[in-house]
């Protein structure tokens, strides 16, 4: 038997209602904040991601699904959406007469990671990008949107972690301070952190190793290195959040796993998730457009992992009920009457009712059993009598009450 590829998951009919519920919430909340949906191809030229996400990040270094296509071009299945959105905005000149663009997206993304709870190789994200503004107001509004969405979904118990990485120069200075601190303690560092220290020192701050965590307690803080303008920006963002009753936790060790961030970065975390405790994250990215050959365009955004949101909903017993919501099951005593059944189904369906009739030549009795199994509200019974008298028997499955109506009165039948 051919199995699905490791790290991928089928979304079965029995689970799909929760996905649809989430998708409806994404549409609703982004509408309230005046964001428009945007869709880009599932694969891009590899450089879209290698130039922006960062050569030394885990994503670009180890996790991209990259292949050479038949034309000899290096192609990558998108590991994230932000860089592809920027590519599309530059290519389609979307910012020409519009100095602010607010877009949202939902789709599947690909990273060759070691699969575990909440970590897949094909996973789904919902995300937003607010492009063309460098104001603290745009940071605050974007974060408020994220919190509003989480609330609407029904998740109350989570943490919003926030930090500022300052500008490029601030980060360079901070890297030097951090490297010097870590090098003087490198004997105690984990193997992974020693490697990161060489290639991407800020990522050492993300280490989950208990000894590293202890050591990092006394490491220099990025906030002590950043310039006044970034500090003021950060303080304003925090003020706006406070003013909007958003609870946050400042965490100066929060750096995020992608290189394109500057100034505000944030993450949504939940204790229900185990090791992969972050279910969403984002931040400001003011240099990404220029890295892709565009103008300097400031922007901020975030993305949430759908599979992780669903794990949280499962733990709260808040997944959506998958029971069938069937309005009518049409039972026919013989396939001779299928034409009549098609006509009835057509009228009911045009009135937006869900209608089911047997397509597998089940016996009369089995069709009734089926109607019960599918939890149908009404059963329509079509036998010789009904067809000859141009009428329809309708049985209310809850009360067992049965009525006979004329065929041309069906249009008026309301449930
Ligand atoms: P990210 O932190 O790499 O950010 O991913 C965002 C979310 O996607 C994570 O918090 C997690 O919920 C989910 N996720 C990531 N990898 C996996 C995986 N292997 N399996 C399951 N879920 C996963 C970004 O992707 C940025 N583009 C976010 C952003 C938007 N920044 C600015 N704008």
Give a written overview of the molecule:
The protein is an alpha+beta fold. The chain has 2 domains: 16-167 and 226-315, Bira Bifunctional Protein, Domain 2 (BirA Bifunctional Protein, domain 2, 2-Layer Sandwich); 326-412, Rossmann fold, CATH 3.40.50. It contains 14 helices and 16 strands. It has helices at 16-32, 47-50, 58-63, 82-91, 136-153, 168-183, 191-199, 210-216, 228-243, 288-291, 306-315, 338-350, 364-373, 384-388, and strands spanning 36-37, 43-45, 66-68, 74-77, 101-110, 122-131, 159-164, 249-250, 262-269, 278-284, 299-305, 328-332, 355-357, 378-382, 391-396, 402-406. The strands form 3 sheets. It has an 8-stranded mixed beta sheet with strand order 1-5-6-11-10-9-7-8. Strand 9 and strand 10 form a beta hairpin. Helix 1 (16-32) runs antiparallel to helix 5 (136-153) and helix 5 runs parallel beside helix 9. Residues 80-82, 111, 113, 118-120, 123, 125, 127, 129, 257-258, 278-283, 285, 301-305, 307-308 line the site of histidyl-adenosine monophosphate (HAM).
Give the structure's gist in a few sentences.
With 415 residues, this protein is α+β, with helices and mostly antiparallel strands. Helix content is 35%, strand content 21%.
Indicate the topology.
Blueprint (H helix, E strand, L loop, with lengths): L15 H17 L3 E2 L5 E3 L1 H4 L7 H6 L2 E3 L5 E4 L4 H10 L9 E10 L11 E10 L4 H18 L5 E6 L3 H16 L7 H9 L10 H7 L11 H16 L5 E2 L11 E8 L8 E7 L3 H4 L7 E7 H10 L12 E5 L5 H13 L4 E3 L6 H10 L4 E5 L1 H5 L2 E6 L5 E5 L9
Parallel strand pairs: 1-5, 7-8, 12-13, 12-14
Antiparallel strand pairs: 2-4, 3-4, 5-6, 6-11, 7-9, 9-10, 10-11, 14-15, 15-16
Histidyl-adenosine monophosphate binds next to strand 6, strand 10, strand 11 and helix 11.
């Amino acid at each position: 038997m051919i199995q699905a590829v490791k790290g991928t998951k089928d979304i079965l009919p029995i689970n799909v209602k929760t996905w649809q519920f989430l998708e409806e919430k994404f549409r609703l909340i982004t509408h309230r904040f005046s964001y428009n949906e945007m869709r880009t191809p599932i694969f891009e030229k590899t450089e879209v991601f290698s130039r922006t996400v960062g050569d030394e990040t885990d994503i670009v270094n180890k996790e991209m699904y990259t292949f050479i296509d038949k034309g000899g071009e290096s192609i990558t299945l998108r590991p994230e959406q932000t860089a592809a959105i920027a590519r599309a905005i530059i290519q389609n000149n979307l910012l020409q007469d519009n100095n602010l663009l607010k877009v949202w997206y939902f789709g599947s993304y690909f990273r060759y990671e070691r699969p575990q709870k909440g970590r897949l190789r094909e996973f789904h994200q919902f995300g937003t990008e607010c492009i063309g503004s460098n104001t603290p107001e745009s940071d605050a509004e974007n974060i408020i949107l994220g919190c509003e969405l989480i609330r609407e979904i029904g998740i109350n118990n989570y943490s919003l972690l926030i930090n500022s990485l300052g500008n490029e120069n601030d980060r360079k200075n901070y890297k030097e301070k951090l490297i010097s601190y870590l090098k003087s303690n490198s004997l105690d560092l984990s193997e992974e952190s020693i490697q990161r220290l060489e290639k991407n020192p800020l990522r050492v701050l993300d280490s989950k190793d208990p000894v590293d965590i202890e050591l990092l307690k006394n490491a220099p803080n990025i906030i002590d290195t950043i310039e006044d303008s970034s500090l003021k920006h950060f303080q304003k963002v925090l003020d706006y959040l406070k003013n909007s009753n958003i609870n946050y936790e400042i965490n100066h060790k929060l750096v995020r796993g992608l290189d394109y961030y500057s100034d505000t970065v944030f993450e949504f975390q939940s204790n229900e998730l185990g090791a992969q405790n972050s279910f969403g994250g984002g931040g400001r990215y003011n240099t990404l457009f220029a890295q892709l050959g565009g103008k300097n365009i400031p922007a901020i955004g975030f993305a949430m992992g759908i599979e992780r949101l669903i794990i949280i909903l499962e733990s709260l017993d808040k997944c959506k009920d998958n029971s069938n919501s069937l309005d009518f099951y049409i039972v026919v005593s013989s396939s001779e009457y299928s034409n009549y059944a098609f006509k009835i189904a057509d009228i009911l369906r045009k009135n937006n009712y869900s209608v089911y009739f047997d397509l597998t030549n089940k016996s009369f009795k089995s069709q009734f059993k089926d109607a019960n199994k599918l939890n149908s509200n009404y059963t329509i019974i079509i036998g010789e009598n009904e067809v000859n008298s141009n009428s329809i028997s309708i049985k209310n499955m809850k009360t067992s009450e049965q009525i006979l109506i004329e065929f041309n009165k069906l249009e008026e039948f309301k449930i």
